[in-house]
Amino acid sequence: MSRPTELPAWQALQAHYDEVKDTHLRDLFAADPGRGERLSAEGAGLYLDYSKHRVTDETLRLLFELAQETGVTEKRDAMLRGEKINVTEGRAVLHTALRAPRGAVVEVDGQNVVPEVHEVLGRMAAFADQIRSGEWRGHTGKPIKNIVNIGIGGSDLGPVMAYEALQHYAQRDLTLRFVSNVDGTDLVEKTRDLDPAQTLFIVSSKTFTTQETMTNAGSARAWLLAALKDDAAVARHFVAVSTNAAAVQKFGIDPAHMFGFWDWVGGRYSLDSAIGLSLMIAVGPEHFRELLAGFHDMDEHFRTAPPEKNLPMLMGLLGVWYNNFFGAASVAVLPYDQYLAFFPAYLQQLDMESNGKSVTLAGERVNYQTGPIIWGQPGTNGQHAFYQLIHQGTKLIPCDFIGFCQTLNPLPPHHDLLMANVFAQTEALAFGKTLEQVRADGVSEEIAPHRVFEGNRPTSTLLADRLTPRVLGALIALYEHKVFVQGAVWNINSFDQWGVELGKVLAGQIAPELQAGAEPELRHDSSTNALIRRYRARRG
Ligand code: F6P
């Protein structure tokens, strides 16, 4: 298989789309009173209602056939076996090994990696406990109270998202900060009220070469030494998380204070590796282990559940249906939980860096759409901002609503109101309001068209009992595997990210041109040359 569009199931879906594209959810529900319960699935503590999707049983049958013809389960098994499915980098893709239980066997090049995973987890836990208990002292003898993670992309978004998500479980006398942007404002604002003597920096970078992270780490070291005035302080105030031991040592961090991981962990899949050290310090090793257990629950669900009950499979295939047949360009992810405020941003990297590709595994240009644009905000804020367009605009935007039956902050009546909005929004999006209904409300003929809701706007609703570390792990793994399913159908490599390289290389060339004393000879296009000259002339 090279292009999925050539497969019988794809072609059958195309013909089927022409037949069902105008079918309304109102009619699908009217024809099947049990639809709301029938089109649901449950796994790893998550309940998925996918009944409000524009699908019939035939659509689902054809989507499962597409999964079969594109070899999704074989590709999944190859990933789980440690085969080098990241072909452009010659690497295995084994984030699932990061949450494998102690006794499991997962081999890379004939070697079981699970013992190393648990060895690092053990070192992380010992270190986290030392910080949390105050046993680890800074250079002046004071305990650490502030933890600043310096990293970007996968070395930032996972920890920051999960820290926000699990704040309820955090040790509240510790202050966590996350510095990512090369804009000096990020570091300056996040450190301005911190006492250097009580601050620990965790430099998190898989490669330990990333410009933003290395620049921030260098400035953080200068900030620390300006206050503590002794190079020896670095050892008590800096630790590293990386796969690059040599670069860590060169930076001046003691290898004993480095927590490693492996090239078979992609940056955007690395939260549950040592990249999660800041999170583990915040919430403690036990909660971190619970998070890993949740990831593993979903891995097992993905590995064993039949397609029609398999959450990542269902969400992945439904996404293909809208992306490739309805031409929907984006997906909105709408968590109805303030703790999940960073979840859409996290998913942007996970999904868009993974599936933002335009050649197949064989290097041929695709002639179909691949990864969607992911966006969203926590409810109910989005309702007062962009939902108007989702309800009445001209674009089809499938939405994922995420909610919890129990709140972590019982403050009547907030939670019932919050969840009422989840159910109301998905009901309104699916069923809308007809012209007849609007007229029946006594609205004038002139205004009536403005008050019509077409409906037929598809949504998934994900419900869990409570936002626990375990549920968060399952939720993240659900999206990881959803992305996998879609990449497998599109026959692309979801595990490289060459698309970020060109900009990095050009920035590396332009930075010295901005910094040069004498007017540099510029060899860019006329636009870039003019912008560089204007910047140099006006930067002060
Ligand atoms: O954005 C590109 C990228 O390589 C991401 O995939 C990665 O998460 C991020 O940069 C940070 O890389 P590193 O952890 O090596 O600093």
From TrEMBL:
<dbReference type="InterPro" id="IPR023096">
    <property type="entry name" value="G6P_Isomerase_C"/>
</dbReference>
<dbReference type="InterPro" id="IPR035476">
    <property type="entry name" value="SIS_PGI_1"/>
</dbReference>
<dbReference type="Pfam" id="PF00342">
    <property type="entry name" value="PGI"/>
</dbReference>
<feature type="active site">
    <location>
        <position position="384"/>
    </location>
</feature>
<dbReference type="GO" id="GO:0006094">
    <property type="term" value="P:gluconeogenesis"/>
</dbReference>
<dbReference type="GO" id="GO:0048029">
    <property type="term" value="F:monosaccharide binding"/>
</dbReference>
<dbReference type="GO" id="GO:0004347">
    <property type="term" value="F:glucose-6-phosphate isomerase activity"/>
</dbReference>
<protein>
    <recommendedName>
        <fullName>Glucose-6-phosphate isomerase</fullName>
        <ecNumber>5.3.1.9</ecNumber>
    </recommendedName>
</protein>
<feature type="active site">
    <location>
        <position position="504"/>
    </location>
</feature>
<feature type="active site" description="Proton donor">
    <location>
        <position position="353"/>
    </location>
</feature>
<dbReference type="GO" id="GO:0005829">
    <property type="term" value="C:cytosol"/>
</dbReference>
<keyword id="KW-0963">Cytoplasm</keyword>
<comment type="similarity">
    <text>Belongs to the GPI family.</text>
</comment>
<dbReference type="InterPro" id="IPR046348">
    <property type="entry name" value="SIS_dom_sf"/>
</dbReference>
<dbReference type="GO" id="GO:0051156">
    <property type="term" value="P:glucose 6-phosphate metabolic process"/>
</dbReference>
<keyword id="KW-0312">Gluconeogenesis</keyword>
<dbReference type="InterPro" id="IPR035482">
    <property type="entry name" value="SIS_PGI_2"/>
</dbReference>
<dbReference type="InterPro" id="IPR018189">
    <property type="entry name" value="Phosphoglucose_isomerase_CS"/>
</dbReference>
<dbReference type="GO" id="GO:0097367">
    <property type="term" value="F:carbohydrate derivative binding"/>
</dbReference>
<keyword id="KW-0324">Glycolysis</keyword>
<dbReference type="InterPro" id="IPR001672">
    <property type="entry name" value="G6P_Isomerase"/>
</dbReference>
<dbReference type="GO" id="GO:0006096">
    <property type="term" value="P:glycolytic process"/>
</dbReference>
<comment type="pathway">
    <text>Carbohydrate biosynthesis; gluconeogenesis.</text>
</comment>
<comment type="pathway">
    <text>Carbohydrate degradation; glycolysis; D-glyceraldehyde 3-phosphate and glycerone phosphate from D-glucose: step 2/4.</text>
</comment>
<comment type="function">
    <text>Catalyzes the reversible isomerization of glucose-6-phosphate to fructose-6-phosphate.</text>
</comment>
<keyword id="KW-0413">Isomerase</keyword>
